[in-house]
Design brief:
Length: 270
């Protein structure tokens, strides 16, 4: 009984938002257009800003680690490619999760007094960053490697967004009902980034830490991305794939249940 309920919630948690996007595709297009206008309206560079912002963040990390700390000289010229391969998906992840925490309040004017398919909102939150970072990732991998490697971006970013779907559902509820959550989330994500081999190679960690790195699911995600793109230097781990699938299955059902049951209380809180 418990297992069947879990898989039912997993199925609903995956299909309801996706089918809602297909069923309300005209509304989805309108929301995406509204999102782009809100981001770029009144700016000089306009549509370039969504592309420039992650590029400037990457430039800052490159300056810090490559120029200030001299990682290129300490660890070789591959450090820059290692940094970029992991950092761009991480920036996409943090943007989606950060926005998910304020999702209900951001779109409250749409559904507070009128009927609205609220299950569509997670798709809206994920779609624009997914499209932007996929485009940047394709261009970056094409410049650093080759066209065949660049095509991996069309798989990596969508799979990453799919894996964090349970967190998007959960964080949207926590961000609404726990006021401190949205304030603490950026600091928590920053700490997780420092605990994940993104800004450094895994072998730079003490051996005792490396032995328990598998406890961090984001370390598995980064390891698989590097194995897919830089396969010669990073071994593919079937155990990491299995861990991520099991974690996703265990998270999605309960997170969808929390999301679905909180919908009736959203208007009361707002």
């Amino acid at each position: 009984m418990i297992l069947s309920a879990l898989f039912r919630n997993v199925y609903q948690g995956l299909t309801v938002p996706l089918f809602s996007g297909l069923r309300h595709r005209d509304l989805l297009r309108m929301l995406l257009r509204r999102d782009v206008v809100n981001r770029t309206s009144g700016t000089v560079l306009g549509m370039l800003w969504p592309l420039l912002q992650p590029g400037l963040q990457i430039a800052g990390f490159w300056f810090l680690f490559d120029i200030v700390y001299g990682m290129r000289f300490n660890r070789g010229p591959d450090f820059l490619s290692y940094l970029l391969v992991g950092m761009l998906p991480w920036l996409c992840l943090t943007e989606v999760l950060g926005r998910a925490a304020g999702m209900f309040r951001e779109f409250s004017s749409l559904y507070r007094r009128t009927p609205f398919p609220v299950e569509l909102l997670p798709v809206v939150v994920m779609l624009i960053p997914g499209l932007v970072y996929t485009l940047i990732y394709v261009l970056m991998l094409g410049l650093m490697f080759d066209l065949a490697t660049a095509l991996h971006a069309f798989v990596i970013i969508p799979l990453l967004l799919l894996w964090i779907l349970p967190l998007v559902l959960l964080f949207s509820v926590l961000g609404l009902f726990v006021r401190d959550f949205a304030q603490a989330l950026p600091f928590a994500l920053m700490l997780i980034m420092y605990c994940t081999p993104i800004l450094y190679f895994p072998d730079m960690l003490p051996e005792s830490v490396r032995n328990v790195l598998w406890l961090n699911p984001f370390a598995d995600i980064m390891g698989l991305m590097h194995a897919l793109i830089q396969g010669e230097a990073f071994a593919f781990s079937p155990q990491a794939v299995l861990r991520l699938i099991v974690e996703w299955l265990l998270l999605l059902g309960p997170c969808w249940l929390v999301f679905r049951r909180s919908l009736v209380h959203i208007r009361e809180v707002l």
